[in-house]
Amino acid sequence: MSLETLGWNGRWRELFEVHISEGLVPARVVGEHRSHFRIATERAELSAGTAGRLRNAASQRSDLPGVGDFVAVSLSKGDGPATIEAVLPRTSALIRKASGTPEPQLLAANVDVVFIVTAQGGDFNLQRMKRYLALVQQSGAAPVIVVNKSDLGDEIIGLGGAIAGIGPEVPTHAIGARASDGLRVLEQYFQGNRTVAFVGSSGVGKSTLTNKLLGRDAQATQEVRSYDGRGRHTTTFRQLLVRPQGGAIVDTPGLRGLELWNADGADERDFDDIERLATQCRFRNCRHGTEPGCAVRSATALGDLEAERLADYLAHSGGPTRNAR
Ligand SMILES: Nc1nc2c(ncn2[C@@H]2O[C@H](COP(=O)(O)OP(=O)(O)OP(=O)(O)O)[C@@H](O)[C@H]2O)c(=O)[nH]1
Ligand SMILES: [Mg+2]
Ligand SMILES: [Zn+2]
Predict the structure, then answer these.
(1) What is the DSSP-derived secondary structure letter of residue 176?
(2) Class assignment of domain 4-87?
(3) More confident of the two residues 271 and 132
(4) Assigned CATH class of 93-259
(5) Can you give the pLDDT at residue 248?
(6) Which partner from 18, 58, 211, 238 sits 20 to 30 angstroms from 316, CA to CA?
């Protein structure tokens, strides 16, 4: 795969020039995991760590590499992981400054367009849309509102005034991802190998739309819960997926933190996301305290899970906070 398909262009070539003499290779970060990154170079997709020098120079966590970053890497001679030596200056940065997280969290870098995805059938919430819009407007990327699940009705489009009130200049498209209804209009946003990130509540169909626009089933999707129509936090890692037709998609997990301030506070009471993470802990009976290989603690450290929510969960489940004496 050529770097151009990944969004590489004259700007990046120029910025990378200083690293050529250092023997470094250009790459894009396509995945962020607990202990490592996945990067794509012109030749291969590889695992990578970050150079200590880079970690020491970062004044905050969002300075460190994240999904979408173009980076300069040194390849290992053997089978070992590559090392990210430098992050090229970003054109945009989608950064969440949520309550409860210790530091600003980088959701995606070098994103040109963000689809703020909502869905017919009860997801729409004007306050939440405004928070998403603020997040995008601060990032340097262009916002686009995508109303999914057209087969379930047209109540949101009927509320046209409310959406227009958010920002009249924001393009809004009604689509049905599952039946591939109206997807062609979205192609324009990928032109010139641009990168589009999808944000929105769990269950609105971000991964379904990702798969349709990629033309393959790259991402897992899951039915919303029958009793309240909410999603199940199926996507747990941010990932950049390259489209064979050009352009890239950053699929993201539903942003719990942005929903915490819902008027009804309902989101604070269910912990599906934490229980899902807990299935990845090394020990079945992990109490998410000091156990090694705890996926829940790792998610907190990565900023994917708010420390506040974890504390709330532990208090409800009788975890280590309650029992710590
Ligand atoms: N009725 C209807 N359902 C859809 C449509 N698009 C997606 N869905 C369904 O909505 C459910 C959730 O879809 P996902 O793509 O997993 O949602 P997501 O936004 O990625 O959710 P998270 O990964 O949890 O953040 C699945 O059962 C999809 O089949 C649509 O156009 N109409
Ligand atoms: Mg998903
Ligand atoms: Zn654990």
Answers:
(1) B
(2) mainly beta
(3) 132
(4) alpha beta
(5) 96
(6) 238
